[in-house]
Design brief:
It is built from four helices and two strands, in the order αβααβα. By secondary structure, the protein is mainly alpha-helical.
């Protein structure tokens, strides 16, 4: 599932959020913006913590592979 995730789409979708952001707020904002369901499923699997940047989120997703 994660390998099929479109990282360009992920970056475009999450780039608009204000960082730092908690996992809870990240998911909430993604749901409100209508982010793709695949992205939401992956976001729900990353560790609970505050993410300082979009790069932090991307790195957390990479570690899920």
């Amino acid at each position: 599932m994660i390998s099929t995730l479109n990282l360009v789409q992920l970056n475009k979708s999450l780039n608009e959020f204000e960082y730092p952001i908690s996992k809870k707020d990240l998911i909430k904002n993604a749901e409100e913006k209508g982010v793709d369901e695949k992205i939401l499923r992956v976001l729900k699997k990353i560790p609970y913590r505050d993410y300082e940047t979009l790069t932090d989120v991307s790195e957390a997703i990479e570690r899920l592979k």
